[in-house]
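Hello,

Our lab assistant flagged a job as stuck in the queue for most of the afternoon. It eventually completed. Since we weren't sure the result was trustworthy after the delay, we are filing this so someone can double-check. Below is the sequence as submitted and the structure that was eventually returned. Let us know if re-running is recommended.
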Amino acid sequence: MVVVHVHVQVKADQVEAFVAATLENAKASVDELGIARFDVIQQQDDPTRFVLVEVYRTKDDPARHKETAHYQKWRDTVAEMMAVPRTSVKFDNVFPADTGWDYFERSRPVQ
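-- returned structure --
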């Protein structure tokens, strides 16, 4: 498993548009076989800041994700919304075990 935290700060007048575009991307992303989880979280004390928490099944899945039409649409749509360039940090999974992510997938409501 590869866990990626993407840190984003958007322009204050672009928050709603960013959320709409990002939710569209996230909803399509969770349908990818290589993605175990794709969370969009917004900072409480600064609503212009977000973290996308992306959990990939293999080290090759982030690159596959970036080849999808929905990711490319998101990337192009939000480019001008950024207050600063987005950054990302990659992590190795510690807990739950890689096979434990299947529990989360089974318990996820159908969208």
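-- support follow-up --
The delay was a queue issue, not a problem with the job. The result is valid. The chain has one domain: 2-107. The first strand starts at residue 2 and ends at 9.
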